[in-house]
Amino acid sequence: MAEVNVLEAIRETLDEALSEDDRVFIIGEDVEAGGVFRATDGLAKRHPGRVKDSPLAESSIIGISIGAAHYGMRPIAEIQFADFIHAGFDQLCSEASRWSYRTKGEQYLPMVVRTPWGGGVHGGQHHSQSIEAYYTHMPGIKVVAPSFPADYRSLLKASIADPNPVLFLEHKRTYRLVKQDVANAPAETSIGRARITRRGADLTMFAYGLMLHECLAASEELAGEGIECTVVDLLSLQPLDVETVLEAARMTGKVLVVHEDTLTGGFGGEIAALIAEHAFEYLDAPIRRLAAPDIPAMPYHHAMEAFFMPDKQKIAAAARDLAAY
Amino acid sequence: MPVVEMPQLGESVTEGTVLQWFKEPGDAVAVDEPLCEIETEKVTAELPSPYAGRMGEIHVSAGETVEVGAPLCSVETAESDVPSAGAAPPATSAASGGDRGGWTGGPMAIPPDERTGPAPASPEPTASSASASVRAGPRPAPQRGTIAVNPEPRTRFYSPAVNRLAAQHQIDLSGVKGTGIDGRITRRDIERLLERGDAATGSEPTSVREQDAPSVQRPGSPSGGVQSPGGRDYETVPLSATRRTIANRMQQSNLEAPQAWTMVEVDMSQVFARRADDSEAAEAAGARLTLLPYFTAAVVATLREFPALNARWDGDELRRYHRFHIGIAVASDHGLIVPVVKDAGDLSVVGLARQIADLAERARARKLTIDEIEGGTFTVNNTGTFGSVASKPIVNHPQVAIVTLERVVRRPVVVGGDAIAIRPMANVCLSFDHRALDGDEAGGFLAALKERLETGEGD
């Protein structure tokens, strides 16, 4: 069976959505030509008039999507780099997130905002950012961050079908790096479910996106040293699968939360707080967060980028300390 | 020499116990000939040999529990001179070993199922290497009451997990030596202590303990009591995998699901009459009709009317099922088993009678396959066979309701206004997960079930 990478999984899912539902359209910068990462490659030709270029104005991309959703369309907006989404922050947080709430649930706002996030591609200060924490803080927007191609596929499908605004985060470093034999992948998942990807009794790691793969690689190395890790792929940050998070934390009593975003106010704090609140009596060590240092942006120089980003080695080192505690 | 490994007998199964060996080293072995019998928390099965040749070394003796993938034995084949241990295929499992952390690698070996409880006890590699697996640190002190004098600061710090376990099992922590940082007592230290059997727990005794007390009966023999070496006036009962599964399920159901209970009285005259009509034809067709298939048929027909009860509370999702997979509680020598009649809605009363009899018989003989005990959407329990006239069943988690048929008792009832008649009466009891449904639905279901049983209509 053929392997599919993350980008192909996304492109095929978009193609399917456009074919199956004529309310679906794509809007974003350069999407007609395929987009900078080629996620929409060929789609404008296959679906004439339904893959639309926009001006370099994120506020308008999201604003147009909101308007179209009001009129019964199912817009899929592409923000070229997550770093640029801030220009549309007000549209998302002050308008999109509240629509259902403002109408007492009488109306919904089905729209998806796809955007490549994260570092490790030598993208420098404006092409490497993690943005999830701004939006997980905003009730009314779902935030999805898969790690494997099959999950990209099922969660993008679910996001397009969802009646609420969904921020769909695509880790750009994994686009072509992570491949999967989709035929043998785990069953389709739905928004709001995490997956225990690996089981071990010594400690539990929580991650999403590129860091999930780093955690799995570190776990493999640690297994050789006799340290067995449970690894949880969070998949969906908002809503969060609290039950699985707590179950996995209770299994080992030692918790390592890993993310690429900076530490303070990062999403890992939420995981740590939930576990401290609801699984306190199962804890056998302080909850450990491993994240980027509190520096304004990801540096460009490769050595500095490596310093900034958590990786397999840093994860393994933190896990060894935790296992020994 | 090819090695035969512990297969994964079903989703989420992580370990298995060898109950008995059918082959001794040196015996001739044909392909698919049973090598040994394996018990897991889900089923008991015979392990067919993937190779033909002569039985080699046995690595796991009867009674030992090892993880999936652990070597069980080797088989000397014709081309055994070729060092092929690494190339030996796993015996049966379809699990794709593979490159778990693989970035670009092939199929991700992701455990297909999220196990439901916290992982019990320890993942020490294999029982066969258990003596080496009591890791690094010194063994917990055998006798309590000795005060470990250790000036290190963290020896007196007990984590919430350690405190909880110590309280739960009444362990005096001052006698326990820690293997954590600065001699801290870790949760694993306590778990190992419990595994060693110093406290009565659900943990499987390790082989270390067997060495300490050679008279200990092997786990896995269902009836064997263990006389403690210290001459205590009680015995510790070894817990079979089935017993542990029952314990976990029951506990989980009771912890998670707020359960309400309700009961109706049913006049079974009509059912008896129908059975009398049907039994000759049924016997000719080779089926023996009891009340249970009639009851089950009525339950399924009533579930169609009240789909809220044919559901599972799975994680944070309430799932209503369109098909009716009915679990039938079966008492056996080795504990409660609930085989599932798949698509019970498609079966006639005779069909149900056959299926139930077949599943019950094979449950008692421990011959069920995994998919015959999974996927139930509702459970029926014939508690009347114990002579019970009212019982409060525990919901078969994650299903949302369970119904019992109690013993039929002939007793006087008021009929047709002011008359008194003797009727075969049975109580029907229902427990339900109050998160998933309310009393009106549960009560409506019971009332409709009663009506159906009393009139014989609609199924």
List the helices and strands and how they pair.
The complex is a heterodimer of chains A (325) and B (459).
Chain A: E1 3-5, H1 6-20, E2 24-28, H2 43-46, E3 51-53, H3 58-70, E4 74-78, H4 89-95, H5 99-102, E5 111-117, H6 132-136, E6 142-144, H7 149-161, E7 165-171, H8 174-177, E8 179-181, E9 195-198, E10 203-207, H9 210-223, E11 229-233, E12 236-238, H10 242-252, E13 255-262, H11 267-278, E14 288-292, H12 302-308, H13 312-324
Parallel strand pairs in A: 2-3, 2-4, 4-5, 5-7, 6-7, 10-11, 10-13, 13-14
Antiparallel strand pairs in A: 1-8, 6-12, 9-11
Helix pairs in contact in A: 1-7, 3-4, 9-13, 10-11
Chain B: E1 3-5, E2 15-21, E3 28-29, E4 34-39, E5 44-48, E6 53-58, E7 65-67, E8 71-76, H1 130-133, H2 160-169, H3 187-195, H4 207-212, E9 226-227, E10 235-236, H5 241-256, E11 259-267, H6 269-284, H7 291-305, E12 311-314, E13 317-320, E14 326-328, E15 330-332, E16 335-337, E17 340-341, H8 349-364, E18 378-381, E19 401-405, E20 409-415, E21 419-433, H9 439-455
Parallel strand pairs in B: 14-18, 18-19
Antiparallel strand pairs in B: 1-8, 2-4, 2-7, 3-6, 4-5, 6-8, 9-10, 11-21, 12-13, 14-17, 15-16, 19-21, 20-21
Helix pairs in contact in B: 2-3, 7-8, 7-9
CA-based gyration radius of chain B: 26 Å
Q: Low-confidence runs of chain B (pLDDT<50, min 5 residues)?
A: 81-152, 199-229
Helix content of chain B: 10-25%
Helix/strand/pairing category of chain B: alpha+beta
Q: Any idea of the CATH class of the largest domain in chain A?
A: Alpha Beta
CATH superfamily of the largest domain in chain A: Thiamin diphosphate (ThDP)-binding fold, Pyr/PP domains
Q: What sequence of helices (H) and strands (E) makes up the elements of chain B?
A: EEEEEEEEHHHHEEHEHHEEEEEEHEEEEH
Q: What is the level 1 CATH name of the largest domain in chain B?
A: Alpha Beta
Instruction: Give the low-pLDDT segments of chain A.
Output: none
